[in-house]
Amino acid sequence: MSVLPVKPALRHGVPAWTSNNQELSSTAQHERHVSHLIRQEGRALRNETTCQTNWDETDTNQRLSDRIWDVTQWRDALDLCAKKVDEEMDALTLCKEQMEQALASTVVPLEVGTECLTLREGRTGYELILDPVDQELKTEVALIQRVQQTLQQLIDKAFEHLCVLQENRQQLTADLQNKMDALDIDMTCLSLTRKSPQISLKPNPIRIPSGSCTPQEWLQFSQYNVARSGEAMHLSQQMREEMKLTRAQLQNELDKQRSATEFALRKRTHQEEQARDELEWQIRNTENEMSDMEGDIKGLDADLQAKTASLKLAHTRLENRTQRPGMDLCRDEVQHGLIYEVHQLESTIVSLKQKLTEAQNSLQRCKLHHSRMLQDLSRKQQALSLEQRSLNTRTRLLTPLQNTDRPPVPLVPLTNSSGRSHLQLLAQ
Predict the structure, then answer these.
(1) How far are the Cα atoms of 68, 81, 223, 228 from residue 74, in angstroms, in the given order?
(2) Which of 194, 229, 255, 379 could connect to 168 by a Cys-Cys bridge, CB 3.0–4.6 Å?
(3) What is the DSSP annotation of 266-317?
(4) In 3D, which of 421, 408, 425, 405 has the Cα closest to residue 89?
(5) pLDDT tier at 194, thresholds 50, 70, 90
């Protein structure tokens, strides 16, 4: 088997070989030097970036801790303020309920005053007068109506301020909930490490979210919420004090007027009782006088009849003596006596008739006046009965306007948007 001949390679000289070896050695040394420099620079960069990264993470953690402390402080401040708002709302609601009870307690006095005025309109004749009782009752009714108007205005004002407090509490609730959510997020961020499984790269993480605010705006927002709530609570406290003071003043005015009205009514009743007793006494005396007068009239009539008989006797004697004959028809002492007797009897009869007429007229006047007194007595008894009914009606005034010693009616306070009367937010 024959072998093919090999083409001879290019032959280099010894100098070229030596030069190539030197070039390889120098290049190797240079590359090693460059590599060494790069390795040293890489180590320095690693150390520097590691320190910077650790420092940045530590600084970020510290800032997160500081931010968590700030948010925690404001969360506690908002929670405390919200609790105070709840307490103030409960207090104002209780005060409002007391005012409503006070307003409801004025219904009966107004009905009583109106009923008393209506009852006293049933008086007749001279008993239907504009006396102090009418004036006091009208004053009392007008006062009760003014009290009702004042109480209703205070109740409306309290309700409006409760709405303001409710709005402030909702704002505090929202701000507090935001603080708790932000606190939960920051605490979660603080708990993350480089070995946490939840970490990952995010697209454009350094973007500024829409709706972001500056720290100054954040601080001013919470300060404004707390300050506004504090101002609303201060106004609520002043309102409660004003309501209590007004209720006490109105109660004093009502008590004073009620005492004046009842005093005037009792005084008028006493006066009417005195007038009734006086009239009854006058009626009894008039009846006695009428009885005596009737007896005297009978006596006068009997005496008049007797005097008429005596006059007839005297007339008959005089007439008979005119029949005497001759000189016996003389004007003797008997004649003069009979004539004198006739004149006396005629004068007596005239006087008796005049006195009888006067007695009869007086008796008639007594009877007429007796009838008037009986009618007036009937009116006085009716008026006294109406006054007594008015006094009995006023016994319904048993519930005072300001009676805070008894247990109040169970109240239903305003609730927040979640349906709870107190702020009950769970910390995350």
Answers:
(1) 10, 10, 9, 15
(2) 229
(3) HHHHHHHHHHHHHHHHHHHHHHHHHHHHHHHHHHHHHHHHHHHHHHHHHHHH
(4) 421
(5) confident
Q: By the 8 A CB rule, do 169 and 226 touch? A: no
CA distances from 53 to 46, 57, 199, 207 (A): 10, 6, 16, 21
CA distance 100 to 104: 6
- Helix 333-393 crosses helix 107-120 at what angle (to 10 degrees)? 160
Contact 280, 376 (CB under 8 A): no
Check: pTM over 0.85? Answer yes or no: no
Q: How many CA atoms lie within 13 A of 51 on its CB side?
A: 5
Side-chain half-sphere CA neighbours of 264 within 13 A: 18
Query: What pLDDT score does 99 carry?
Result: 94
Farthest-apart Cα atoms in the chain, separation: 252
Cα angle 267, 272, 276; round to 5: 150
**Residue 330 phi, psi dihedral angles, 5° rounding:** -115, 160
Nearest to 380 by CA among 236, 278, 250: 278
Closest CA to 164 of 88, 243, 223, 76: 88
Distance CA 113, CA 143 (A): 11
Give the position of tokens 């590691």.
Answer: 50
CA distance 196 to 191: 9
Q: Is 193 exposed, middle or buried (0-12, 13-18, 19+ CB in 10 A)?
A: exposed
Residue 207, SS3?
A: coil
Residue pair 312/277 in contact by the 8 Å Cβ criterion: no
Q: How far is CA 247 from CA 69, 98, 144, in A?
A: 47, 9, 13
The three-state secondary structure class of 84 is helix
- Residue 296: pLDDT over 70: yes
Task: Report d(CA 164, CA 148) in Å as an integer.
Answer: 24
222-231, 260-269, 330-339, 414-423 — which is least confidently predicted? 414-423
Which letter does DSSP use for residue 211 in this model?
Answer: T
In this structure, which amino acid lies at residue 398?
A: L
Residue 16 sits at the vertex; the CA angle it makes with 10 and 17, to the nearest 5 degrees, is: 85
Q: Give the tokens for residue 340.
A: 């004198």
Q: Please provide the distance, in angstroms rounded to a whole number, between the alpha carbons at the two ends of the chain.
A: 94
Identify residue 38 by its one-letter amino acid code: I
Chain Cα centroid distance, residue 8: 127
